[in-house]
Structure formats: C-alpha cells, structure tokens
C-alpha cells in the first residue's frame, strides 16, 4: 500500500492535466490512474477486513476514473467492488462498460479512414504508408497480458461465459502455454454448451504437464468426467435419432 501511495505522490508531481495529446503525459496519466486502481484492489483484497476499506476502495476507483476515464482496471475494480457487496447487476454494468470500450476501440481501428495526404499516393504505396503511419490505441494495450485473465475470471463470476471466452481466446493466442488459461477456456466453452470447442481445448490441455498444479489437475479431471457424461448423452441422442429414422423408413414403405 505504501509503495503505491509513494508512486502516486511521484506521478502527481509529473502529471500535467492541461497538456493534451502529449505521449509522455498520456503515459503518466495512465500510470497514475492504474496506481489508484491497484490501491483500490488492495483495499478490497488484503485489507478487506477493515471497516474503512470500502470507502477508501471507492475513493481510489473514482480518482482513477477522474484522471483517466478509459482506465479499464478501474472498471474491473468497480465490478469486483459490487461483487463483494453481492450487487450483481451493478457488477455486470461495469463489466459491460469494460467490454464495450475494448470492442469499440477494436471496431474503430478497423474503420479508420484514409488520411488526406495518402489519397494522392497510388494505391499500393498508400496501403503501405497507411499501415506504417496509422496509430492504433486500444485501452487494453496499456495492460500486461495477465489483465485479460483477470477480466475473464470476473466475467465468469457473473456467468458471462461468452465474453470470458472472448478474453481467454485473445490470451491463449498470445500465450498458448498457460495451462490455467486453457482450463478456464475449456470450462467456459463447457458452460456455454459449445462441447465441440471444449473438446478441442481439452485435447490441447491434456498434452500439457499439469503435475505442478494439483488443484488444476483435479479440476481438469472433473471437467473430463463432465465431458464423458456429455459424450454418453450425445451417443444416446444419436441412437434415438437412428430409431426415429428407421421408423420413418418403415412408414414410407407402408
């Protein structure tokens, strides 16, 4: 807590909110907002037992958002804040805002218009220059890859498995060796009833060494058992379909 407070003190001296669109100031602003968010996280985890922690947690989240309205970590901390208070609808609201920001930035990147000076260049050169000069900023790019894993876990808590899958697929694309991420992805596909994709992820996970994580090993085996039941049910359903087809054939003959 003292380390984050000291970092906030230093960053506040460096931060000049009047300066706009300066790359260094933008980075300072993001760092300062994330420091406030990190402090909020401590108040609702390690220091959760103190009665003043709730107010201090909220104050730090609000400070983070005041400094940087696109501080995704602050959105996540607010979602956790309301989950701790068992206010699920409020938690879902902040998670939706978080995912909307990520998706909006991704869509904006795809639709960015050509710059006027590029229009005068022949088509092939224009494409090349556009790729070199276009600056793409997605708020989630300011965070380590582990942030996607944190977001996916909270999404799972509110049973938003589709959004969690979206985060986990992005994570696995960058780090396919993380066994926890693979397990969570398989679990989410199972919950979303996408059993085909669940099997694929489970096959990949089965090739990894899980011996160093006993808890994950147990969870993996439990999910294997659940998938075995799904396989049995699917086999039964197919057998029933076969009987119905036979019956139809008999009726056609008659």
Features:
disordered C terminus, mainly alpha, single chain, Serine Threonine Protein Phosphatase 5, Tetratricopeptide repeat, 254 residues, 12 helices, 2 domains
Summarize the helices and strands and which ones pair or pack.
Blueprint: H1 2-14, H2 23-43, H3 53-67, H4 72-84, H5 88-111, H6 116-119, H7 123-133, H8 146-157, H9 161-174, H10 179-191, H11 195-206, H12 214-253
Helix pairs in contact: 1-2, 2-3, 3-4, 4-5, 4-8, 8-9, 9-10, 10-11, 10-12
Number of helices: 12
How many beta-strand segments? 0
Going by helix content, strand content and strand pairing, the class is mainly alpha
Per CATH, which architecture of the largest domain? Alpha Horseshoe
- For the record, the CATH class of the largest domain is Mainly Alpha
Oligomer: single chain
Give the averaged pLDDT, no decimals. 83
The H/E string reads: HHHHHHHHHHHH
Shape: elongated
> What summary fits the major beta sheet?
none
Q: In total, how many domains does the architecture comprise?
A: 2
Give the DSSP E fraction (strand runs of 2 or more residues).
under 5%
CATH topology of the largest domain: Serine Threonine Protein Phosphatase 5, Tetratricopeptide repeat
Please mark out the parts with pLDDT under 50 across 5 or more consecutive residues, or reply none. 109-123, 129-136, 249-254
Radius of gyration: 24 Å
Distance between the termini: 81 Å
